[in-house]
Every structure is written in C-alpha cells, then in structure tokens.
Amino acid sequence: MRPLTGIVFALVLLVSSVHAQTESSQAAPPQTARQALIEMLFGQAPNHLEKHLPEVTRQAFENLKGAGGQSFLGEFSMLAKQAEQGKDKFEVFDTGPTLFTAKDLPGGNYDKMDITVERDDLTGDEDQIELAMHMTRGGKEEAIPFILRITFSMKMESDIWRLNEIGLGVRLPLADPAFLKSLLERQRSQNEQMAIWSMRSVLSAEKSYQASQGSYACTLPALGSGSKGTGVAHRAYLYDSQLASGKKNGYIFAISGCDTSHFQLIAEPAAPDSGQRAFCSDESATVRASADGKASTCLSSGEVAEDRGLIFGARGPVAVEVPANARPIVGAAPQSHVASGTPPAQRVRVSQGVATGLLISKVAPIYPEEARTARIQGSVVLKAIINQTGDVVSLDLVSGHPLLAPAAMDAVRQWKYRPYLLNGKAVAVETQITVNFTLAKD
C-alpha cells in the first residue's frame, strides 16, 4: 500500500502543478507587441523604457550623456513622468483602431489629437506597427499639408517584445480629391483672414490720416509715403509697403470714390476663380464681404464679414456682433482701436528702439501648433499704443502671417513699459513692435 500511496501523492502534485500553471497563464496572458509599445512610451515602472530595448541599444544609450550628465534613458524617463502628470487629458488603448487620444492640446489650435493604428503586421517573432496622426478642430478632422506615418518594428527577444527600429514616412495623397479640397479650403481661409487684417490696417491708416490732414487719402501710396507735391512732408500712416503697393497675399487692394469726407476700400482676389471672397469697407470701418469674389457685389450688397470686430482689451480679443445695417458714426474711432480705459489726452510717436529701451517685462509668444506643423515662421509687425502708465492699450497688425499674428498680439498685450516722459510728464506713445517666430533647424 505504501508504493500505491506514493504514486497517488505524486499524481496529485502533478495535477496541482498543471492547474496552477494554467491559472497563471490565464491570469497573465503574454504581452502583445502593441502593449509593449504602450508600456515603453507611457509606462511608470523604473525600467519601462530599457525593458523593451535590445541589450546592445540599452548599453549604448546608457553611455550617451545629455545636459547635466544625464543619460538619454534618464531624460526619456523624465518626459514620461511629465506625460503622466497630464494623464487626465489623454488615453491609451490596448486594442482597436486608436492607440492614443489627447484632448485640450496646448495652444488652443486643436480640440483633439488621435494616433491611429494603420497597420499591425505580426509575422513570427516580429511585428510592424504603423501609426498615423489625426488632428481635430471644431469636431472636424483638420487636413495637414502632409500625412506623417511612424512605423515601430518590434522583435521578440527572451520572451520580451523589444523595439528594433523606428521608421518615419511622409505621404502626400496628391490624387485624393478630398485631401486636395481640404488643403485649398485651408489656404483660402488663411488668405481671406490676411485680407481682413490688411483691410483693417488700411482703415486704421485712413483714420489717422484724416485726423492729421483733415481729409482721407485717395490712394494707398499716399498712406504709405504721405502726400506728395504739396510741399508739406507727412509721415507714413501705412507701414506695410507691400500693402501700400496694392497687392498682397493674392489680393488686389484699392481706394475709390474718395473725397474729403468719404472713401471706399476694396480687396478683390487676384485670381477670379480662386473661390475667395471679396471684401470692401468705407469710412464706417465695417468690413463687408461677397462670396462671388467681386468688389462691385460687395459694395452693393456685401454682408458683414463673419469675424468682424475685435476689441483688444486687457484680457485679449473679444468678439463684437455688428448688425448688417450698422453704420458707425463717421469720425468715431474704429472698433479695433477701442482701448481699455480712457484714451490719453496727449500722445507722441517714438521709434521701436526707444520703446524697447523702456520695456520692463516681456512675455514670449506661444508658437501656434498649426504654424509649427506647417513650418511657418517670420516676423509679425504691430502698431502699438502704450498709455501713460506703460500698459499696451491698443494693437493693430501691420504685417505678418495670419497664423502667427494672434499669438504675437496675445503676448504683446501683456508687456509692461516704463512711462515715457515728455517735459517731465508721462505721456502715451505710439510705436512699432516686431515679434519674431523662428523654428529650430532640423
């Protein structure tokens, strides 16, 4: 009986062992390559990154020292911890078409970013995972100038998925009508926005010219260089020389129907079949638009431009609703010039260099993510009025890309200056401010 008891005991142990192994395998299924990639990028374990790197790669990265003597792996871990702090704004998915979703993106240009899995090809101990980025604004996916694809090549080593290679690809679907249409719409929108900014610059210059000369300028060059042939030198009222020439950003600008108390300003697309709106205005400073792209239609029956009216106060731009039949009193300050507080009784114009010398505190602009993605850079030139206490109370765009201008204005409105003294008394000043946007070289 003793040998039989031993055999039964051994069988019980064997069954128990098999059962335990089965339960263990059911409780912790093997990690997929996708799960390994997610752990590598967003994991919180101390070794979440190096765990999924080949041994030779891990050793090489350990020897690469960054700023302050920290290794590449250490810097990456710091980035992962920063991402963890904002985990309430993003979500990752082990399965399904979406790998990563982020909301409330910095800069406010987009509502959401999705990283989707375009391809997941598992062959033996290797897996190719291809990802694509999608940006959403206003509930609609935004077309970007190119489609970026990232491919992660994962390989199983010692029962662990490890990242062996990263591939970057750019795809331009030039034959895709939907893609081309979205790009054209995007460009048209940018051109129209820039045309409206240019219209406001001219309207601002006309108002300043009329206050100084007693009548309106009847040509754009007169605003840019002052009246000629009168023997009296006048300062320039329109600082954008390209706009003063009458052509800018695919639009033709002109002043017509001008006399001492009236003028008409028009902006018509240089290409009649571009699909862009035409714009018009007069001494009322109300910018109107016509969908057919004809200035004559705008003058006769144009509707108020949909983004009409920005009052630049201490906390940024505030939209102003303007009825279609509204005609502000001629001679009243344009709405884009309304300042926070009472306008100063006396104001002098100073150079940009003098104003820079008075600058006490400066807020750097936030580079718009849309402009960064499109590799847009350059300078934004602003006309500014600074009151007696050194606060920026009024801004007008002189020149600059429409994707960069709002960020520049948001930053400059927060700048603080020392009061400018004239005969020992603080006075308001008018000056020009240039904000530069530069992308790092690849």
What's the CATH first level of the largest domain?
A: Alpha Beta
* Spans where pLDDT lies below 50 across 5 or more residues: 7-20, 22-26, 226-233, 306-345
Proportion of beta-strand residues: 25-35%
Backbone shape: elongated
CATH fold-level assignment of the largest domain: Nuclear Transport Factor 2, Chain: A
Q: Oligomeric form of this entry?
A: single chain
CATH architecture of the largest domain: Roll
Main sheet summary: 7 strands, antiparallel
In terms of structural class, how would the helical and strand content be classed?
alpha+beta
**End-to-end CA span:** 82 Å
Average pLDDT score? 76
Write down the domain tally.
Answer: 3
Based on DSSP secondary structure assignment, what is the total number of beta strands? 22
- Count of individual helical segments: 11
What is the percent of helical residues?
25-40%
Report the radius of gyration as a whole number of Å: 31 Å
Short characterization:
With 442 residues, the protein is of the alpha+beta class. It has helices spanning 2-27, 33-42, 55-62, 72-85, 177-213, 220-225, 241-244, 295-301, 352-358, 369-373, 405-412; strands at residues 90-92, 98-103, 112-123, 126-137, 140-142, 147-157, 160-171, 247-248, 251-259, 262-269, 278-282, 288-290, 303-304, 310-313, 316-319, 347-349, 359-361, 378-386, 392-399, 416-417, 420-422, 425-437.
